[in-house]
Amino acid sequence: MKNNCLMLYGKKFLLGIAVFCMLTGITGCSQKEEKEPEQSPSATNEAAVDYNEDETSNLGLWARAMGSVLIYLNDGNPYYFGGYQITEDNTAAAGNILSGSWNINNRLDLLKQINTLLKTGDRMNYRKEVKEMNAMSKKQLKRAMKQLSGDLLIHYQMVQYNNENWQENGLLAWDMCRVSHLVQWGYVAGYLNREEAQALIEPAAAKLKQHFKNWEEVQNNWMDGFCLFANVDREAANTDYTNRKALYQKLLDAQDKNHPLYDDNLFTEEIIPVSGITYQTILEELEEEEKASDTQNKKNSDKKTKSSEKGLKFH
Fold this sequence. Notes:
By secondary structure, this protein is mainly alpha-helical. 60% of the residues lie in helices and 0% in strands. It is built from 13 helices and no strands. The chain has helices at residues 17-24, 59-73, 88-102, 107-119, 121-134, 138-146, 150-166, 172-189, 194-199, 202-211, 215-230, 240-254, 279-312. Helix 1 crosses helix 3 and helix 8 crosses helix 11 (215-230). Residues 1-33 and 43-47 have low confidence and may be disordered.
């Protein structure tokens, strides 16, 4: 009999605009009501539990906890790496979601987006906005905030909130958890194999381990980052934020202590890489593509120059 933690993973992806919005927290879609899944997956004490992980590494556990709320929000199973059974329909749907929400249409696009999240992500603009606000006097800032309304006011209120509560770590978990979302959807879409997907979690997990103490901090940082990105008022009732917060609490309460989804020991234990492959090797594909692109651009430029020089001789 299948484990309870796999009850949901056979469901097909939701293919509407709601899924596109929920995957990335797209501004403008974020105010739509998010539907809570009917069941809460949990692990059991059965001896054999299929987490779909490389058992020599703990990166699968990192990835599942990082992506848990959004995977569950989309009717997936956060106890199963990838969230969904790999079927023809699910693979096509994952590709459609990545394309529609992230403009990811192939493996290289996926690696580029993951690399961007690791290096800069939304936290780069957040830090710029914090710097600009800090450069203003209290009087100037108060006057400027009074002139704002609607989403713009909420946005800058959330910039202030994240800065007051997280400082330089603002939006860090927001970006790193989205790495988990991308590698899991990319795995189901067929752009990565399981070991590659889990290996790519390592630098994101390392950042979380360095800057946070436990999963409570990570999930709160992720949700606060979502509020800034999607212009959601943390203090308002019945929002996408309150729904995500409730789902996190539901998953937290449902977890079995023998099979925890949110294992805080990960923050004090060493990260165990996937055997036989590294995230650096995978991301080197981007450097190779950049070199090939530079070479092609140089060839095109040389052809254009020669053509121009040839043309001058006819005058």
